[in-house]
Write a structure and sequence with these properties.
alpha/beta, 16 helices, 16 strands, 19% strand
């Protein structure tokens, strides 16, 4: 640039996809004289290794260069779910001293391939989604945001990202509802109830606010209420072991107001995350929730509903089938909470996720290690999913195992990620529609 006659010092580095990973290394390790005043990552994000959770619970980055993160909602490689994770850390939860240093912009309808104007490599064709907008409009939106960011860094002109925050808000909500380990690590303390902490996640809000209450159903008596305290614990831990429990019973409360207070345990498991090269291709949501609850019989007994509890005890499978109801609730919640654009795309191109009957085991060890089962139809018309449940009777031989119900669940963020990305690839993938070819004809 200098050889061509450039004499200014307002230099910015822009990089796409894997190039964004390389740019970060250069700017954080080599850009010690601040040759570059900022960087723009397109279809790429600030790597997880540069961030940490502080004692006050905020996110602080060990990264010197101001950075704009640009992501597309139809990017099949740098998932918009990973961009939402960046939104949470770089904007929503950022430490005050770094506020506005790492803005995030989500572009509706833009795919991974649209950040360039060259023949699309086969790897991208095979993994990307079909864009919802034309290439010229995508490039215009990308250019406008890049220019606005540069103006912000050099001249202090306000850079409005409120529209992007609205686009990403449903996904951020899904991550928080899951209790994603990509926001804060799980507490995993020795106590049954994890102590309050700013630096780790206590448990899954989805379990505490929705799943357990749906599993049990409404109590017969209107004066009986339910309070759930979910805690993240390793499901295979033995020393100490963590079991769900009922802390307060309302069995003899009569007509007085009473709350059945319960403790549940959850562990989220993830596909192998890209520890060395965080490209966003790996699913961001938990692949399953290992949920440990007491049985419906136990909860109903604690609510003083002996006849209902006895009926359920005679027909144990009736409690097992409620895992399907949990998944139905999950699907309804996810579908209702995604963006209008995502919902419209899924209505047109989405591959249904169908919950099959639960598999049942009486072996807790097998339950831990046997995963949710996903089987896609040969014609890719639907993805069949079956959970694994491990229920025990109220009169089980070993007292500590009485009245338990363990089950594998899909997380709310997993369902959202299916709607935004994975559920579209069969009918709306770039390799299926060949939309990339039209740009070069």
């Amino acid at each position: 640039m200098q050889a061509a006659g450039f004499t200014g010092d307002n230099l910015f580095m822009a990089a796409h996809s894997l190039g964004g990973v390389m740019a970060q290394y250069y700017n954080n390790e080599k850009n010690t004289d601040y040759t570059f005043k900022g960087q723009v990552l397109m279809g790429s994000v600030l790597q997880r290794k540069y961030r940490s959770i502080q004692d006050d619970g905020t996110t602080l980055f060990d990264f010197t260069t101001p950075t704009l993160t640009l992501g597309g909602t139809k990017d099949g490689l740098m998932r918009i779910t990973r961009v939402a994770e960046s939104q949470w850390h770089q904007v929503n939860n950022i430490n005050d001293e770094q506020a506005n240093k790492y803005p995030v912009v989500a572009l509706n309808g833009v795919s991974h391939a649209q950040f360039g104007d060259y023949p699309v490599p086969s790897f991208v064709v095979n993994n990307d989604l079909t864009p919802d907008i034309e290439y010229d409009l995508a490039h215009k939106k990308i250019g406008e945001n890049m220019a606005a960011f540069c103006d912000f860094v050099v001249n202090g002109v306000a850079f409005d990202t409120s529209e992007s925050a609205e686009i990403l808000a449903p996904l951020v909500s899904g991550m928080e509802m899951e209790g994603s380990y990509n926001l804060k690590e799980p507490c995993y303390t020795e106590e049954d109830v994890n102590p309050p902490s700013n630096t780790c996640s206590h448990g899954s809000p989805w379990m505490a606010e929705h799943a357990v209450k749906t599993f049990i159903g409404e109590f017969e008596k209107e004066n009986i209420h339910l309070s759930v305290d979910d805690n993240f614990h390793r499901s295979s831990s033995l020393f100490p072991f963590h079991h769900p429990s009922i802390e307060t019973s309302c069995a003899t409360t009569g007509s007085s107001e009473c709350t059945v207070e319960v403790i549940t345990n959850t562990m989220l498991t993830y596909k192998l995350l890209e520890e060395h090269v965080d490209t966003g291709k790996t699913p961001i949501a938990a692949k399953e929730m290992r949920a440990k609850m007491k049985s419906i019989q136990a909860y109903r007994t604690a609510a003083g509903e002996e006849l209902m509890a006895k009926k359920l005890t005679k027909d144990l499978i009736s409690s097992v089938m409620n895992a399907r109801e949990l998944t139905k609730l999950l699907g309804e919640w996810a579908y209702a909470n995604v963006s209008e654009e995502a919902r419209a795309n899924f209505d047109l191109f989405g591959e249904s996720m169908v919950m099959e009957e639960d598999r049942v085991t009486g072996n807790g060890g097998l339950w831990v290690y046997k995963p949710l089962k996903f089987e896609e139809a040969d014609d890719r018309s639907e993805m069949d999913v079956s959970s694994l449940a491990c229920p025990t009777k109220m009169n089980a031989l070993i007292p500590i195992f009485r009245g338990m119900h363990y089950c594998k669940l899909i997380s709310p963020y997993h369902a959202m990620e299916w709607i935004y990305i994975d559920g579209l690839k069969a009918k709306n993938g770039l390799s299926v529609t060949e939309a990339h070819l039209a740009f070069y004809q």
